[in-house]
Amino acid sequence: MFTGIVEEIGIISGIKQGKNSEILTIKAKKVLEDTKIGDSIAVNGICLTVTALSSDSFTADVMHETINRSSLSKLKYGSKVNLERAMPVNGRFGGHIVSGHVDGTGTIINIKPDDNAIWYKIQANQQILKYIVEKGSITIDGISLTVAKVSETDFSISAIPHTVEQTILKEKRQGDIVNIETDILAKYIEKLLNPTQNEQSKITKEFLLEHGF
To answer: Model-level pTM?
Structure first.
């Protein structure tokens, strides 16, 4: 599990292409502290397993499913990426619950300065937008952010200068693709309210309202 608080910006130092997969080597520093082979590191919000370590980098495999759902296939040598180690049991929960399993991608359609903040408007499909609510949590390229606005075709976030400077948000331009992970709680609620034909559930909208949800 992650929190969406980016620890450092890494740099892609190697890409080995497979038929439908990749092996990434990422230059880093802070996230290598206490990291072992088999540990998880979120790369632009995607949970990857460390398969090899050196003094200044780590390597991770990217499978077919991950490439299909994310923007990792667009990375090049020298690309910058957000990095976060899995949350330790005794760590601070500074962001929100982030699984590192992205739902898909979105496209930045507008970037607008607003005094000391910057607005990012992101277009996404309905399968993603249905889980996004105003003032709810969203993960963009591994960054825990608060949704400021939602429409039928897009949503917007407003980022403070610190967040922009400490992440790859400062590298983003209109037309760029970003990884999106919606709030996992919304997915569980949907599953409980809409069980499959072979499932039976006593959790209904009326039940939740009756119990204060």
So the answer is: 0.87
- What single-letter amino acid sits at 13? S
How far apart are alpha carbons 108 and 130 in whole angstroms?
A: 18
What confidence score (pLDDT) does residue 198 get? 58
Write the Ramachandran bin of 171: left for phi over 0, alpha for psi from -120 to 50, otherwise beta.
alpha
CB 77 within 8 A of CB 53: no
How is domain 104-189 classified at the CATH fold level? Elongation Factor Tu (Ef-tu); domain 3 (2.40.30)
Domain covering 8-85 in this structure, CATH number: 2.40.30.20
Angular region, 115: left φ>0, alpha ψ -120 to 50, beta rest = left
Residue of 1, 3, 133, 122 whose CA lies nearest to 71: 122
Gap between the terminal Cα atoms of the chain: 25
The domain spans of the chain are 8-85, 104-189
- Cα(41)–Cα(145) distance, integer angstroms: 19
Q: What is the spatial distance between Cα 31 and Cα 23, in angstroms, rounded to a whole number?
A: 18
**Tens digits of per-residue pLDDT, 159-180?**
999 999 999 999 999 999 999 9
The model's pLDDT over 62-86, given as tens digits with 9 standing for 90+, comes to 999 999 999 999 999 999 999 999 9
* Mean confidence (pLDDT) of the chain: 92
State whether residue 192 is helix, strand or coil.
Answer: helix
Given a contact cutoff of 8 angstroms between Cβ atoms, the answer to whether 179 and 145 are in contact is no
Q: Are 98 and 1 in contact (CB under 8 A)?
A: yes
